[in-house]
Amino acid sequence: ALEAAEERIGPSLTARLRWLLRFQVFALERLKKREQERLGWEVLAFTTAQSVIGEFPHVGPLAFPRGPRPWREVESLQQTLKGGLQQLFRGNGTWSALPCRIDGIGVQRWPEKEIVLKLKNSEEVTVDEGEPQIDILYRVEWPDSFWLAVAVLLRAGSKWLQTCPVCHSLFVRVRRQAYCRSACSQLVRTRRYRAGHRATRRT
Questions:
Q1: How far apart (Å, rounded) are the C-alpha atoms in residues 144 and 171?
Q2: Around 7, how many Cα atoms within 13 Å sit in the side-chain half-sphere?
Q3: In 134-175, which ranges are continuous DSSP H helix?
């Protein structure tokens, strides 16, 4: 169930951003019991997968439960997330009260690694994986690990997050995308056309 939830969310950073934005506006009261359980698994999958994505090298193993999250807990997470994103993108630009407590911080050193590849002609080639690396490991419990994952994701994906100037919805921008959907873009074009048409008629 957890693996299936990870597949539904998607492996990329932008896919996880889109899931987070969808989660904060879900009409939870309309979901059936099976859909509630699926979402409970997705909340857990969102948190557990952060440490295996390339954009999160400084996030250590996150503590998480073994089963899908209870429905009341999912509702609470959604309400807090929605309020925090409003502060961040529609308020003063600061979400200063994330409900996250870090129990401890450690560091782990990953020495330089070499991999030996065997070619078809029995020749061996040594591949260098790069310089040694030291990662920060955050020790957190659930649901603090969810909020740490949210904070790190927002930081890593900040350049893709944008507020639609028409409907003020938060969306994940693709290339030079300026509006959250085609309907908002069409509305702006229609307004510009009508304004230009009125100006022409006056002259």
A1: 25
A2: 4
A3: 144-156
Q: State residue 52's pLDDT score.
A: 46
pLDDT tens column, 149-160: 898 889 888 899
- Give the model confidence (pLDDT) of 191-203 as tens digits: 887 776 666 666 5
* Residue 70 DSSP symbol: P
Q: What's the rounded Cα separation, in Å, for the pair 119 and 129?
A: 18
In 3-130, the DSSP E strands lie at 104-110, 114-118, 124-128
- Which two structure tokens, joined as six digits, stand for 26? 């879900």
**d(C-alpha 32, C-alpha 44), whole Å:** 19
Task: With beta carbons less than 8 A apart as the criterion, state whether 53 and 91 touch.
Answer: no
CB 95 within 8 A of CB 88: yes
Pairing of strands 133-139, 104-110: antiparallel
Strand partners, 137: 106
- Residues across the chain: 203
Q: DSSP letter at 63?
A: P
What are the backbone dihedrals phi and psi of residue 114, each rounded to the nearest 5 degrees, phi first?
-130, 135
Phi/psi of residue 20, each to 5°?
-60, -40
